[in-house]
């Protein structure tokens, strides 16, 4: 079994002379709920804020730095925000920010090893390091969301007419006033539609909800487009 490690903003801790004292836990985030006490009634009522809404959380890594001359380099590296990957889930990353002070103390008088803790304030949903992109050229093509929550994909669409429809998992998006042959992008996270060539914001051409991909097997149907390129954005707990 290999040593535990983490990768922060594309840099492996082992390449910085940093070891972990032990593996970092794999956390399933807490669902965001509110508990309300009712006067005169035992217990309380639990209100769920929304479907698949989870709280951010802190991951603490205990690190060992080999050589005091590395300490300042480590301080400069472990700062700000970005993406972190822990060795327990080597194929995934999650947005995070390093918070709190980092204090490195000498482990012993005989060994030039410095120990301390790093706190990562992690966003709850993880993504694949290599996100799959699916190309669809015909209505009725199947697609599978293997993640734990609904996907909010990024879609590049080549229009074949002035009107187009994309339907996934029963959710339909209608687009009007298009130009045949022009490529458009739809970003379901930001709720924006843009022309790929000119970069013009044309969200006003959409009617209905932006495309989403529920968990499990789904079918992509529609008309008015010759090709869809879907960046999946699968997310995991």
Count of DSSP strands: 22
Order of helices and strands: EEEEEEHEEEEEEEEEEEEEEEE
Oligomer, anyone? single chain
The amount of helix comes to under 10%
- Give the radius of gyration: 23 Å
CATH architecture of the largest domain: Beta Barrel
Mean pLDDT: 92
The percent range for strand residues is over 45%
Residue windows where pLDDT falls under 50 for at least 5 positions:
none
Brief characterization of the structure:
This protein is mainly beta and 237 residues long. The protein has one helix at 71-77, and strands at 6-8, 11-12, 18-20, 33-37, 44-48, 57-66, 81-86, 92-99, 105-106, 113-122, 126-128, 133-136, 141-145, 154-159, 164-168, 171-175, 183-187, 192-195, 206-207, 216-223, 225-231, 235-236. The model has no long low-confidence stretch (mean pLDDT 92).
Using brief descriptors, characterize the structure shown.
237 residues, mainly beta, Elongation Factor Tu (Ef-tu), domain 3, Jelly Rolls, 2 domains, 10-stranded antiparallel sheet, 5-stranded antiparallel sheet, 46% strand
Can you describe what's shown?
This protein is mainly β and 237 residues long. It folds into 2 domains: 6-125, Elongation Factor Tu (Ef-tu), domain 3; 133-236, Jelly Rolls. Helices cover 3% and strands 46% of the residues. The radius of gyration is 23 Å and the shape is globular.
